[in-house]
Write a structure and sequence with these properties.
8 helices, about 300 residues, single chain, 6-stranded mixed beta sheet, alpha/beta, Purple Acid Phosphatase, chain A, domain 2
Length: about 300
């Protein structure tokens, strides 16, 4: 029996922490990213969403962007990106964001704003937010920021597209489901702005995030926050999302974790010297819920 293609199918990659400089914590980042592109190219996808921390070393972004583009230019699917704290932290944050918006070419961020939206297929809309929006010239924190100008834009965008199922992508999750992570969470006032913008917006199907390097599914208002696994952390995983139309204004959003086929030889250094990463993986296994799953959403006609 032939299986029907989903209404929409896309991949979420998060926390790539790319750098062309070899570092002890992520010694196989180049191999992992190249194998990930190969794996993505074998799949039927509408697009790929990158939810932040594309780069690991902010001061090297200009140099690492060249190699990053060389690898991603082999991807046969369109991809779109959100900023993470590792991408922009430091002095003169606006200049670093401008560099990335220009350097990533036609990959979403060149639309002239760190936050943007578009419709990948009729009846759905991807809204990409900037959770590093501190409102200052510099950004010296790992916490989520979301200022009034972006909140107003989000509220207006959601109101204008009530006839579409909305998928939001951003780096910082607006939830703190894991212990000992208060230094990574959203600023309280900024979280209140996001909650205000999302109030009575029942057509938001999901909020896709990264940042914690842990996989999970967590309720937030009338929707779900789905935190993705870090691509750079062993054993190198990302998520595939499939949206199936069910008729009568309903759809089913499914998600599944996929492991990048990196050979043991290529991944040996990362797999061996990973005390911190092993603890992270163990914490993810114990605390996270719904690695694979799905739920019913409203899907406008």
């Amino acid at each position: 029996m032939r299986t029907l293609r989903p209404y929409l199918r896309f991949a979420q990659l998060t926390d790539l922490h790319f750098t062309a400089q070899r570092i002890a914590r992520y010694p196989t980042v180049m191999h992992v990213l190249e194998r990930t592109i190969d794996d993505l190219n074998e799949q039927d996808l509408d697009f790929v969403l990158l939810t932040g921390d594309l780069f690991h070393l902010p001061y090297r972004v200009e140099r690492d962007l060249v190699e990053f583009r060389r690898i991603f230019d082999n991807l046969r699917h369109p991809y779109y990106a959100a900023f993470g704290n590792h991408d922009v932290e430091g002095d003169e944050t606006a200049a670093r964001k401008a560099l990335l918006m220009e350097g990533l070419g036609d990959r979403g961020l060149n639309l002239g704003s760190p936050w943007y939206s578009f419709s990948p297929i009729k009846g759905t809309r991807l809204v990409v937010l900037d959770s590093t929006d501190s409102g200052d010239a510099d950004y010296h924190t790992w916490r989520g920021n979301f200022k009034s100008r972006q909140a107003r834009w989000l509220a207006e965008t959601l109101d204008a597209h009530r006839d579409e199922a909305i998928i939001i992508g951003m780096h910082h999750p607006p939830v703190t489901p894991f212990p000992l992570m208060d230094l990574l969470k959203f600023q309280d006032r900024d979280l209140a702005r996001l909650q205000w913008a999302l109030k009575n917006q029942d057509h938001v199907a999901a909020i896709l995030c990264g940042h914690y390097h842990l996989t999970g599914s967590h309720p937030f208002g009338s929707t779900q926050v789905l935190t993705g696994p870090s691509l750079v952390e062993h054993p190198h995983r990302y998520r595939i999302f499939s949206l199936h139309a069910q008729g009568e204004g309903k759809g089913h959003l499914e998600y599944a974790v996929r492991q990048v086929p990196v050979s043991p030889i290529e991944d040996a250094a990362c797999a061996k010297g990973r005390t911190v990463r092993f603890r992270t993986a163990a914490l993810s296994h114990v605390l996270s819920t719904n690695r694979n799953g799905g739920y019913t959403i409203a899907l406008p006609h």
